């Protein structure tokens, strides 16, 4: 009774004080308990107007409120969002008492929970590129579908890499300097404390960051703004891990103005969907906040999520046809257990201190300091261990890979077609075995050591030990009811130590640290300061260097809100510096590897603006335009940092132009959004490493491929529509149609070690320039360029729910080899065109492969129970119900780099060096049980 009187009094006072203004006031309650809901977010759809309810559940929405029919959206973490149609009259106060929200007992976010942990992309170059985490925070049906339904097919919104988005935690950018992408596993398994997110998709303005052309997401982990209570979770799956347990407790803001949140978790399994892909990950999160005088707050956060996972291999179609799509070449049996040779370990704690200062009722200053350290390792086998004989390294073992081309049936069919029994024997051997023989490597090493030799085989890891410091300040101030200013300045410094680390000598005691492929004893030295060094387990070897990065950037933004139109203007400036410091003196580059190299400086800028025009509360139109330049990533600046200081010649900042326009329709039943977009990227670079066969005739060389001055075009349309046809049934549909292409013919440069083989192949000082490639209008390998989804969701008042979607994907393309589309393709060893070169045949040989279209059906459902003050939820999903088999990506091998070799290989019934592919998962499940209190 007392609460009701207070509520009536508060609403009455609000109406009197604001009597001459246009206002929306009201209150929000829990549908079950009828208790007031504090901190519910009340948002006028199609505008930036929003407010929160107080401890009595009361809110006042003020500002420039559009007149006429509008949609009022009420939401709070842990509750189902609800939309209320309203009519606003000029100078009147609209009073809406006792709006109710029902508990959301179905954990939709668990769909994206597993996406962030298991759908890491195909290889190390793309392993952090999963886009689902970027999108899952949004309530837009298109973006939800892209996160939940499309991510398993490695769909990229607008065909763009995730380095075009900014991911922040408490206002601190988390994107890696090395490749510009977020390392999702740095906070994996902490989903319950990461749900409070602010997403600005595309060029839309953000209060925290200028963002990229894919937008920005700020994850708010402040304990004072977390929903109080606890949650225990157990999950089972056959995707990446078998089991997951999580525990989380948040105090909320206590009477003494302290607040804290703690979360613990573990995910593990001996293998996921692919063979021998072990998974072991622990998660720890602790955050404590103290508020002072109601105006200032200090928040300390620690995040630690060490994890190890086994990788799976891309394979040729020949291999998949023999072994199936779950096959993984990276493992073999050892002592009765599956041992994977390719493990990825991430161990990078994050410490963060945040200061929040309400300078006034309209101005907030947020200052942050963050420190991240630790290591990341990727293991692999080395089979080139040697001994010194007459001063030269000699020896080495056979390639332990079971899919090495000389072990497969196609090799024998090509080389000895008159004796197909050899191919048959290879087929049967691969069918019955086809895995790494760990015991053979141990036996070879032990036997060789008994004769005084060094290790032939070794397991090592490529290690990256990053130490990064970040400090920034973010200012948000409301000048008046119409104008808001946002500004930020940010500095980050990175010291990245890179080296190879001996993990296991496989029965041997030491390894000779030299380059087995060098042409003389001087060039063979990985470190001339320590020639012919013998290393043991735990030692650094092969290469050792640091990458140093400093980045300073600032942005300012003004947002304007009026009755019929909202618009914004935003600008950014950045200064970036890179430098390499060599800790080894490489024998192949004695004068260009040790010590500090040249400092590389890049100046970037960005300008963007946009508007939203409100025809009415139901019909809105918005547009955004952005022009920006940014520094290339560390990854694409140094051409071969393992061995030398060399950088991409005449490297420049990357230029980006982007525009999008959208139409929105919103009613109490139907929500729809139609968007058209165009993005052009220029002056981009890409560096790849591979063994090229057929360079300068028939020569084979390990190269660094530098593709320079790349232009790309991304354009298309997006449609998302959902209809709440009844109180329990929702229909939804999504379509994404895009075309993502090379827009020019970028230049190609190959570099390698300047040895005798390279000179014979036409390299000068270790470099060979091929001029323009012929890549224009080839499709970019960026996942399905067209994707469609249709589905429904039924939510019963008795707290059970069920949903199904059918998703269709098309226009997925193979990643093409630039070298095959350069002058090397038709040029013989003498520099002349092949005398048997045929343009028509060449055109067919170089035609880009388009994968088959496919459909994936997914099911989700759950049931929840209220047990006193506790909530129990059971959630299950089945992905790819019909067990569709489909390719998600692939690439052409660096072999067969010229016309004759490619023609002869493709003429075979089974090519020896066909493309390598990744396949999507078949039918998988995810089961989740949680208890909230």
From TrEMBL:
<keyword id="KW-0998">Cell outer membrane</keyword>
<dbReference type="InterPro" id="IPR008969">
    <property type="entry name" value="CarboxyPept-like_regulatory"/>
</dbReference>
<dbReference type="GO" id="GO:0009279">
    <property type="term" value="C:cell outer membrane"/>
</dbReference>
<keyword id="KW-0675">Receptor</keyword>
<dbReference type="InterPro" id="IPR036942">
    <property type="entry name" value="Beta-barrel_TonB_sf"/>
</dbReference>
<protein>
    <submittedName>
        <fullName>TonB-dependent receptor</fullName>
    </submittedName>
</protein>
<dbReference type="Pfam" id="PF13715">
    <property type="entry name" value="CarbopepD_reg_2"/>
</dbReference>
<keyword id="KW-0472">Membrane</keyword>
């Amino acid at each position: 009774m007392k609460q009701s009187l207070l509520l009536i009094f508060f609403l009455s006072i609000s109406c009197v004080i604001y009597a001459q203004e246009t206002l929306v006031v009201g209150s929000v309650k829990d549908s079950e308990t009828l208790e007031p809901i504090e901190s519910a977010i009340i948002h006028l759809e199609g505008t930036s107007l929003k407010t929160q309810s107080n401890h009595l559940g009361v809110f006042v929405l003020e500002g420039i409120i559009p007149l006429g029919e509008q949609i009022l959206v009420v939401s709070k973490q842990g509750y189902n969002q609800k939309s209320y149609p309203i009519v606003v009259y000029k100078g009147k106060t609209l009073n809406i008492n006792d709006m109710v929200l029902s508990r959301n007992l179905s954990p939709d976010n668990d769909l994206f929970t597993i996406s962030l942990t298991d759908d890491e992309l195909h290889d190390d170059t793309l392993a952090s590129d999963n886009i689902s985490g970027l999108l899952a925070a949004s309530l837009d049906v298109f973006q939800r579908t892209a996160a939940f339904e499309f991510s398993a097919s490695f769909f990229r919104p607008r065909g763009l890499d995730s380095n075009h988005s900014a991911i922040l935690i408490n206002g601190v950018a988390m994107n890696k300097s090395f490749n510009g992408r977020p390392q999702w596993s740095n906070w994996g398994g902490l989903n319950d404390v990461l749900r409070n997110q602010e997403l600005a998709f595309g060029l839309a303005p953000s209060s925290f960051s200028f963002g990229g052309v894919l937008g920005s997401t700020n994850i708010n982990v402040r304990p004072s703004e977390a929903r109080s209570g606890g949650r225990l979770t157990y999950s089972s799956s056959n995707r990446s891990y078998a089991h997951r347990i999580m525990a989380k407790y948040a105090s909320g803001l206590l009477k003494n103005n302290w607040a804290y949140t703690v979360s613990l978790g573990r995910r593990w399994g001996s293998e996921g969907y692919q063979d021998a892909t072990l998974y072991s990950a622990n998660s720890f999160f602790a955050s404590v906040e103290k508020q002072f005088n109601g105006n200032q707050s200090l928040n300390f956060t620690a995040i630690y999520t060490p994890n190890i996972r086994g990788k799976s291999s891309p394979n040729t179609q020949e291999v998949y046809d023999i072994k199936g799509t779950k096959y993984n070449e990276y493992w073999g049996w050892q002592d009765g257990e599956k041992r994977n040779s390719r493990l990825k370990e991430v161990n990078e704690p994050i410490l963060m201190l945040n200061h929040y200062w309400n300078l006034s009722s309209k101005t907030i200053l947020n200052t942050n300091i963050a420190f991240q350290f630790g290591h990341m390792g990727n293991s692999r086998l080395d089979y080139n261990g040697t001994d010194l004989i007459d001063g030269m390294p000699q020896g080495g073992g056979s390639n332990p890979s079971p899919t090495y081309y000389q072990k497969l049936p196609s090799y024998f069919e090509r080389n000895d077609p008159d004796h197909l029994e050899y191919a048959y024997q290879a087929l049967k051997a691969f069918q019955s075995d086809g895995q790494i023989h760990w015991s053979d490597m141990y036996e070879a090493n032990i036997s060789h050591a008994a004769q005084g030799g060094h290790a032939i085989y070794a397991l090592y890891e490529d290690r990256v030990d990053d130490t990064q410091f970040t400090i920034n300040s973010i200012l948000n101030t409301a000048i008046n009811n119409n104008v808001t200013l946002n500004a930020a300045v940010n500095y980050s410094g990175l010291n990245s130590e890179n080296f190879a680390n001996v993990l296991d000598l496989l029965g041997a005691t030491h390894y000779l640290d030299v380059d087995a492929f060098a042409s003389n004893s001087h060039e063979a030295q990985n470190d001339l300061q320590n020639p012919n060094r013998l290393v043991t387990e735990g030692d650094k070897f092969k290469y050792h260097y640091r990458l140093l990065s400093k980045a300073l950037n600032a942005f300012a933004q003004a947002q304007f809100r009026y009755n019929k139109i909202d618009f914004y203007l935003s600008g950014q400036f950045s200064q970036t510096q890179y430098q390499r410091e060599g800790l080894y003196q490489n024998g192949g580059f004695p004068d260009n590897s040790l010590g500090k190299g040249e400092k590389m400086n890049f100046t970037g800028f960005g300008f963007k603006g946009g508007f939203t025009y409100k025809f009415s509360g139901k019909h809105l139109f918005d547009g955004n335009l952005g022009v920006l330049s940014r520094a290339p990533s560390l990854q694409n600046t140094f051409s071969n940092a393992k061995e030398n200081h060399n950088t991409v010649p005449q490297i420049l900042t990357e230029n980006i132009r982007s525009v999008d326009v959208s139409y929105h329709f919103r009613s109490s039943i139907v929500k729809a959004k139609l968007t058209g977009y165009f993005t052009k990227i220029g002056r981009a670079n890409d560096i790849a490493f591979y063994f090229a066969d057929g360079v300068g005739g028939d020569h084979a060389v390990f190269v660094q491929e530098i593709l320079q001055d790349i232009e790309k075009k991304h354009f298309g349309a997006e449609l998302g529509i959902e209809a709440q046809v009844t109180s329990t049934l929702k229909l939804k549909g999504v379509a994404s149609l895009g075309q993502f292409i090379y827009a020019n013919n970028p230049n190609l440069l190959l570099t390698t070690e300047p040895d005798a083989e390279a000179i014979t192949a036409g390299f000068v000082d270790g470099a060979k320039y091929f001029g323009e490639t012929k890549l224009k209008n080839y499709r970019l390998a960026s996942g399905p360029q067209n994707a469609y989804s249709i589905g429904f969701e039924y939510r019963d008042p008795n707290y059970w729910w069920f949903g199904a979607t059918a998703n269709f994907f098309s226009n997925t393309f193979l990643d093409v080899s630039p070298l095959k589309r350069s002058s090397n393709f038709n040029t013989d060893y003498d520099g002349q065109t092949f005398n048997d070169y045929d343009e028509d045949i060449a055109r067919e040989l170089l035609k880009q492969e388009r994968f088959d279209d496919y459909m994936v059906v997914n099911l989700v459902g759950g049931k929840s129970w209220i047990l006193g003050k506790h909530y129990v939820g059971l959630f299950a999903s089945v992905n790819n119900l019909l067990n569709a088999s489909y390719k998600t990506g692939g690439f052409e091998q660096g072999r067969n780099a010229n016309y004759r070799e490619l023609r002869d290989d493709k003429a075979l019934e089974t090519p020896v060096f066909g493309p390598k592919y990744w396949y999507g998962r078949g039918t998988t499940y995810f089961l989740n049980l949680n208890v909230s209190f």
